[in-house]
Write a structure and sequence with these properties.
By secondary structure, this protein is an all-alpha fold. It is about 35% helix and about 0% strand. It has helices at about 40-45, 65-85, 90-115. The longest helix has 25 residues, at about 90-115.
Length: about 150
């Protein structure tokens, strides 16, 4: 697309004809420690404080602690640890934390399913009736409940 100089604004930058391509860089974390707690990791978008580089210094507010967000936070930490272990397979501390979080994930899912109904098709295994279409769905508004 050809543009006149008068067309330039904040949305379009002008590059010289021989400009090199940009290369993104993400710093490699040294270890799994220190790490955020589950809810803060979900809110910050990373488990690792060393990789917490908020765009334009904008940080999410802390999320409200509900059974669903607590389960999502544990799921997020499990995913983050899997990504970390992909590049640090020999980190025993990370693998032990991963095992702990997998157990917590299973417990959280069982508690949530018992209190609120299935959230995955496999949660219906062993149920007496088909409950997949039962309300409320996890994202539907409902009064705060204790699980």
């Amino acid at each position: 697309m050809s543009r006149n100089k008068s067309d330039s604004n904040y949305r379009y930058g002008d590059l010289p004809a021989s400009a090199p391509l940009a290369m993104a860089y993400v710093p490699m974390q040294e270890s799994v420690s220190p790490s955020y707690e589950s809810m803060e990791a979900l809110s910050r978008g990373t488990l690792f404080p060393g990789l917490d580089l908020p765009f334009m210094n904008l940080v999410n507010d802390t999320l409200e602690s509900t059974p669903l967000t607590e389960m999502q936070a544990i799921d997020f930490v499990v995913d983050e640890l899997e990504l970390y272990l992909d590049t640090h397979a020999d980190d025993r501390e990370a693998f032990d934390l991963y095992q702990t979080m997998l157990a917590l994930q299973q417990e959280a899912r069982e508690r949530f399913t018992k209190a609120c109904g299935p959230i995955q098709q496999t949660d219906q295994l062993g149920m007496k009736d088909y409950a997949w279409l039962s309300s409320p769905w996890p994202w539907d508004y409902q009064p705060r409940m204790e699980v």
